[in-house]
DNA sequence: GTCTATAAGGTGATAGAC
DNA sequence: GTCTATCACCTTATAGAC
């Protein structure tokens, strides 16, 4: 017995697809209703407001990313943890392409009601990577510096992942991960 | 004698600040006019439409980034070119914080009239970095792989730069560049 | 639970006086 | 060149029938 009705699920799916396409501000509740195959009144029966609707979508995405990164980190050690996190994050992006686009567009917004939610995405993602970096950087490295590095790895994976899906989607995920990880091998700086 | 009137400049400045704060869709022409200290009619006298207004803003930003990266690349060689590009891109982001936020939010949009403009930002940025990478990667590396790496470096710098400005703006730009570049030293993977 | 109809307010854009 | 006034439309949200 699903605790989420078919209608609610259809609305969420419609909102996700449209939001990825036109952004959240660019998506209207009318369009969402039409795409979900229900009337606008039904959308408002299931979600109190447009903000609540998208917040639910984003919250689910944040949880999903956090859990994925944490699991990847715990299943490997040393630099292997970074490798696993990059790989798993790329897989997640590929599986939830629309959600990834939606979140990428919102990630630096500071004026939304769900700001806390999306900000949590970056913070949790970056801090998971930061934790994995701790044993890999010199002992005297300040935490802020480590978080900047983590932000860089997070950003590289996100940008690389979206570029991959937009321009060369036929490339296997392993190759994309390998390309990003190659930059950390030290062979560029030789 | 400026070829751009004071009014036009005030409107562009207002649109930039508001756009960085609320996004482009979230910014109204009424607000832009108010902040610029002119009437809405004057905004429309200077810009044919809201789209044209923001397109002008974004176009200027793209040119600026492209020029900066090209200059940085040409003034150094080998890995030094990557170092210079990261450093100059961070400097540019710091100097044009609002523009950087505006562009970051639009960079993966595919449905806007200025899509071509913003898409050009990423493409030109990534391809400049890709050019600098050519002598640094194994000879048999496909171009697509090299561009994925370049996208990663671009994404790392953008994300690192925005995190820097949002959370630890007192950190000197050199330290931020050093943190990002450290990840390419190979010392993480040892 | 889902629908239709409508309210209430905002938005991009234009006309025409000055 | 800049202003005020206004249009036509769109958007979120709600009321009430079924």
Report on this model:
The structure is a homodimer of 190-residue chains. Chain A has helices spanning 6-22, 29-36, 40-46, 50-74, 79-95, 97-106, 115-133, 143-167, 173-182. The first copy, chain A, has two domains: 1-47, Arc Repressor Mutant, subunit A; 55-182, Orthogonal Bundle (Tetracycline Repressor, domain 2). Chain A is mostly helical. At the A-B interface, helix 6, helix 7, helix 8 and helix 9 of A face helix 6, helix 7, helix 8 and helix 9 of B. The structure holds a DNA duplex (18 and 18 nucleotides). Chains A, B: This is TetR/AcrR family transcriptional regulator. Chains A, B: Residues 28-47 bind DNA. Chains A, B: Residues 5-65 form the HTH tetR-type domain. Chains A, B: Keywords: DNA-binding, Transcription, Transcription regulation.
Tell me the name of the CATH homologous superfamily of the largest domain in chain A: Tetracycline Repressor, domain 2
Beta-strand level of the residues of chain A, as a percent range?
A: under 5%
Shape of chain A: elongated
Class per helix and strand makeup of chain A: mainly alpha
Largest interface: A-B, 55 and 55 residues
The tally of beta strands of chain A, per DSSP, is 0
- The CATH class name of the largest domain in chain A reads Mainly Alpha
Annotated CATH architecture of the largest domain in chain A: Orthogonal Bundle
Helix content of chain A: over 70%
Tally of separate domains of chain A: 2
């Amino acid at each position: 017995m699903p605790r989420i009705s078919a209608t609610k699920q259809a609305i969420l799916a419609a909102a996700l697809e449209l939001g990825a396409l036109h952004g959240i501000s660019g998506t209207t509740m009318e369009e969402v209703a039409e795409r979900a195959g229900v009337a606008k009144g039904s959308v408002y029966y299931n979600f109190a407001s447009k903000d609540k609707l998208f917040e639910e979508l984003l919250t689910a995405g944040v949880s999903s990313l956090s859990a994925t990164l944490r699991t990847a980190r715990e299943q490997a050690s040393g630099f292997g943890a970074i490798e696993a996190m990059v790989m798993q994050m790329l897989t997640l992006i590929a599986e939830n392409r629309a959600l990834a686009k939606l979140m990428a567009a919102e990630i630096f917004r500071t004026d939304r009601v769900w700001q806390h939610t999306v900000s949590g995405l970056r913070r949790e993602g970056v801090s998971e990577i930061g934790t994995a970096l701790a044993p890999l950087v010199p002992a005297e490295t300040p935490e802020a510096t480590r978080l900047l590095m983590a932000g860089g790895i997070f950003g590289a994976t996100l940008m690389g992942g979206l570029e991959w899906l937009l321009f060369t989607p036929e490339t296997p995920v392993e190759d994309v991960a390998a390309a990003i990880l190659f930059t950390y091998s030290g062979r560029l700086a030789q």
